[in-house]
Structure formats: C-alpha cells, structure tokens
Amino acid sequence: MKYYLLFGPPGAGKGTQAKLLVEKFNFHHVSTGDLLRKEIAKGSELGLKAKTLIDAGNFVDDSIVVGMIESEIAANPDASGFLFDGFPRTVAQAEILDKMLEGKGSQVNKVISIIISDEMVFQRIQHRANIEGRKDDADPKTIQNRIDTYHAKTEPLIEYYKPQGKYNEICGEGTVVEIFEKISSLL
Ligand code: AP5
Ligand code: MG
After folding, report:
1. What is the CATH classification number for the domain harbouring 51?
2. Residue 43 covered by a domain
3. Residue 100: inside a domain, yes or no?
4. Residue 75 C-alpha to ligand 1 middle, in angstroms?
5. Are 109 and 161 in contact (CB under 8 A)?
6. Which CA distances in Å does 152 have to 140, 148, 171?
7. How many domains does the chain have?
8. What is the pTM of this model?
C-alpha cells in the first residue's frame, strides 16, 4: 500500500489538487479538515469538541485526528493508495503515523509540499470565505492564527521528511492545471 502526503499552508490548494489526483490515480483521499467538518455538521460529540478549536484556527488534539486516520485506513482495505491532506500537521503526528504504518509493513512513500506566500494565503482564503462559508475563513485574525500555527507547528515537518528523502516541494502559485501537472509528474 502506498501512502502520499499533501502538505502546505492553509489555502495552498491541497483540497483542490487532491480531487484531481484522486480522479487520475484512484487514491483514497483523506482530508482531516473535511472529516472534522463532517463531524461538526453531524453534531457528534467529537464534532462538538473540535468546533471551538477549528473556528478559532487552532489544532484539534493529535489523538482525535490519529483516530480518524486509523479508521479511514481500516475502512478502505482495497484502496490502491492513500492521499492524506492536512495530516500529519505536527512532528508528533508524523511520528505516530510512522509507527502506525511500520506496524502494517508500510511507510510514507512521498511528501508533496505545495508552497504559497502568506499574502496569497490571505487572498485565497478571503475569496473562498464568500463561496464556502467556512467559519475559519471569515475573520482575518483567525486566518493569521492558522498561518502562524502552520509556521510554528507544521513547517518543522519539512526537516522531519527531508533527511528521509521523501520531501518534494512545488510552488503553488501557478494555475490549478499547472500545479496538477507538476504533482502528477512526481507521483
Ligand atoms: P483544513 O481543512 O485542512 O484546512 P487548511 O489546512 O487550513 O487548508 P484549507 O482547506 O483551508 O486549504 P487547502 O490547501 O485545502 O486549499 P483549497 O484547495 O481549499 O483544516 C481545517 C482545520 O481543521 C485546521 O485549522 C485544524 O483546526 C483542524 N485540523 C485539520 N487537520 C488537522 C490535524 N492533522 N491536526 C490537528 N488539527 C487539524 O484552496 C483554497 C482556495 O484557493 C479555494 O477557493 C480554491 O478554489 C483556490 N485555489 C486553489 N488552487 C488555486 C490556484 N492554483 N489558483 C487560484 N486559486 C486556487
Ligand atoms: Mg482543504
């Protein structure tokens, strides 16, 4: 089983690219953000716990997202590969994922990092706020918190994956199709 990670700041285009990659490569797409928003929409206990954190642009506990990833892997034994979007987001999550996959005789195969500037994050997210109505897109303070949290907690993952030879970085500031072609050539 192959495991690919789509990595990048808020609004980098992870979800947009994941949809196209799934069509082309037939991966099972797992976005922890989408899964958490589904739990919030259902009003589940997990969703209620996550809502305040997400709406303020803060991370949900590692144990919650790791549990969701385990369930997704277990529920899709016939997948040709997994494309994780927005997970792992901390070094602690990456270490847990490595142990989890090691136990299955697998590993993370490649990390695809889509990089855009903080200014472009703002532009993209403020534009999307009018379309999708995500609460964490609405307030500039929340957007700034998501950007700061990315730099502080998620960016260190670059130095986690680089020495393993798994890290691939692409500029996310072209058109959707240009970026899709760059990622496709890496897969
Ligand atoms: P999540 O849903 O993962 O949000 P995010 O990482 O902030 O990323 P986004 O979904 O906002 O952006 P994206 O990269 O998918 O970009 P998109 O394709 O939509 O997580 C939300 C929250 O959940 C987190 O803040 C946290 O609280 C919690 N959470 C999730 N995972 C967690 C974890 N592992 N641990 C702890 N907490 C976790 O594109 C953005 C916009 O730009 C769209 O409008 C799109 O149409 C447009 N666009 C895309 N590509 C282009 C392009 N090339 N040119 C022009 N426009 C483009
Ligand atoms: Mg997304």
Report:
1. 3.40.50.300
2. yes
3. yes
4. 24
5. no
6. 18, 6, 20
7. 1
8. 0.96
Structure tokens at 9: 């700041």
Side chain identity at residue 34, one-letter code? D
What's the gap in Å between 18 CA and the centre of ligand 2?
9
Domain that holds residue 170: 2-182
Is the backbone peptide bond immediately before 88 cis, with ω within 30 degrees of 0? yes
Q: Which atom of ligand 1 is nearest to the CA of 34?
A: 2
Sign of CA dihedral 64, 67, 72, 75: negative
User: Ligand 1 centre and the CA of 13: distance in Å?
Assistant: 7
Helix axes 140-149, 118-132, angle to 10 degrees: 130
Nearest to 11 by CA among 143, 183, 135, 139: 143
pLDDT digits (tens, 9 = 90+) for 137-184: 999 999 999 999 999 999 999 999 999 999 999 999 999 999 999 999
What ligand 1 atom has the least distance to the C-alpha of 172?
53
Hey, whose CA ends up nearest to atom 1 of ligand 1?
A: 33
Cα–Cα distance for residue pair 175/181, rounded to 1 Å? 10
